[in-house]
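Q: What structure does this chain adopt?
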Amino acid sequence: MNDSRRKLHGTWASRWTFVMAATGSAVGLGNIWKFPYITGENGGGAFVLVYLGCILLVGVPVMMAEVMLGRKGRMSPINAMKSITRDAGLHGAWNSIGWLGVIAGLMILSYYAVIAGWALNYIIEMGSGTLHGADGPEASALFADLLASPKKLIFWQTIFMLLTMGVVIGGVTKGLGVAVRVLMPLLFVLLVILLVFSAREGDFYQGWTFLFSFRSENLTWGGVLEAMGHAFFTLSLGMGAIMAYGAYMPEHAPIGKTVVTVAFLDTVVALLAGLAIFPIVFANPSVSANAGPGLLFETLPVVFGNMPGGLFFGTLFFLLVTVAAWSSSISLIEPAVAWLIETGRCNRITANLLLGLIAWIVGLGTVLSFNVWEDHRLFGFNFFESMDFLTARVMLPLTGLFIAIFVAWLMKPAEVFSAIGDDPPVLLTLWLRVLRYLSPVAVAVILVIGLYKTFF
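A:
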């Protein structure tokens, strides 16, 4: 039965297709929106240096382990973990790694589609000229009007979910594979165009200084923890996506080199996004580079709306944000789709329609969190905030912690090295030691500190 399941999904056309798929999963709203402003707020180059260290000590080791489990199991995360756990003679409780990842992915998709819908809306707002000459209050009012309208939010949420399902229905080679070969080059082209525009029309020196000057006095322990957390979350770890994509990876592709390439590209996109955004922001003295979460939908529309050619390039920017979100969303639904197909009860179309509908219905709670249910809270959280907390602060780090422990402590080293591929033995030994002793501690710190900061 397991052998037949392993043949259901196919494999990526090449190692490079996997690199683009995993990079597409990793590159999302966090790269275009969050990473640039938390870098600027936490010491610029000092924060980047700490972040890169966290990527090497936390992100890459756990990602290698997750990809290895996926390729070894050759099935959805749920069935891959069942197979590996059974073959190793381990307790069935470790199957929870697969279940946690798949459920977390669907939960994230439910609210991710709503937020990505905002970017879709702003493509139209920018392209139609609505924001031409807009000032801060006007841009804030426009965003507030969007959040206050359930009908608008549901409309754009639905469009984005249809875009996501349309790709995944095509399968591994004709759907996901083709999509990432188109979306990722498009993302880089848009990013380069915006970078050139930023260098010509913005204050590039100020933007560069904001991001890369080594301001160690601005880097606090809170910033170090934020770097550690973002390094973990930016690579899409613990949500089933990377394990599912690993299941489609060619048999002899070296996992270590491939994962390092993905981590490098993910970081490059985040830094280039910062260089595209902040020179434009600094060119307009009336707005603040420290706008934080409001940077994307309130500050940048003002800047683009008041620059020569800004409406055109603003439209391209929100298209870039949408493409980044789209490439991530297809990886969020795929693990659950793969599992439903393996049950034999659904084909790929039926599985997509069913899971897409579930994610859409759950997403209505996020839609209403910004208007009708805004004041309805449990333990201080509205619906959207509770979903974000459960996934980002609990489920993802918990799954990552379980993966590190399972691979480094419970699987036999010889079995792990055989499943990883042809990476140099010395590096594999170093990786396993980092995964065994450093990564679990770091992930546990992310989990505990995240819970402590939330409730105390």
